[in-house]
Automatic annotation (TrEMBL):
SUPFAM superfamilies: Rhomboid-like (SSF144091). The gene is PARL. It is a multi-pass membrane protein. This is Presenilin-associated rhomboid-like protein, mitochondrial. It is found in: Mitochondrion inner membrane. Belongs to the peptidase S54 family. The chain crosses the membrane at residues 20-42, 54-72, 78-98, 105-126, 138-157. It catalyses: Cleaves type-1 transmembrane domains using a catalytic dyad composed of serine and histidine that are contributed by different transmembrane domains.
Length: 188
């Protein structure tokens, strides 16, 4: 578990844990909190992106947020393992808050206090930026910040740059799946 399901730039295994650590959690409470936030925002993001694009963005977000975590750990010299889906979930949260900034949110145990999604996103980014700068260790603030920034970027620019331009690659993939790879390496 530690080798493949926790990400750490000091580990001998660097790449696969960047994705696999997104599926491991420290405790039942850690997993429950992450899954509650994902469940709360997943229907909105699936309505915005669709199922296939959501899955691609979510898995990419796990890798990207872990990469930002690696960079933060190397830059500060604060090595240590990270795990959990919160970086990818921050992508989902930030994407929804960016697309629906006037949406009303509340904290589960304090439903009487509501705030806009845009303000929530600003507060989360400010908290994670402060956590990174001040060296707070309760969360992986670099992964959270990387996930949030990726979510903002993706719904603002990424959909147009990446998803809408995937057609040539999808056609090649379907051709390979249907007819198999071309023999002889040349064109017909």
């Amino acid at each position: 578990m530690i080798r493949y399901f926790t990400s750490n730039p000091a580990s001998k295994v660097l790449c696969s844990p960047m994705l696999l650590s997104t599926f491991s959690h420290f405790s039942l409470f850690h997993m429950a909190a992450n899954m509650y936030v994902l469940w709360s925002f997943s229907s909105s993001i699936v309505n915005i992106l669709g199922q296939e694009q959501f899955m691609a963005v979510y898995l990419s977000a796990g890798v990207i947020s872990n990469f930002v975590s690696y960079v933060g750990k190397v830059a500060t010299g604060r090595y240590g393992p990270s795990l959990g889906a919160s970086g990818a979930i921050m992508t989902v949260l930030a994407a929804v808050c960016t697309k629906i900034p006037e949406g009303r949110l509340a904290i589960i145990f304090l439903p009487m206090f509501t705030f806009t999604a845009g303000n929530a996103l600003k507060a989360i980014i400010a908290m994670d930026t402060a956590g990174m700068i001040l060296g707070w260790k309760f969360f992986d603030h670099a992964a959270h910040l990387g996930g949030a920034l990726f979510g903002i970027w993706y719904v603002t620019y990424g959909h147009e740059l990446i998803w809408k331009n995937r057609e040539p690659l999808v056609k090649i993939w379907h051709e390979i799946r249907t007819n198999g790879p071309k023999k002889g390496g040349g064109s017909k």
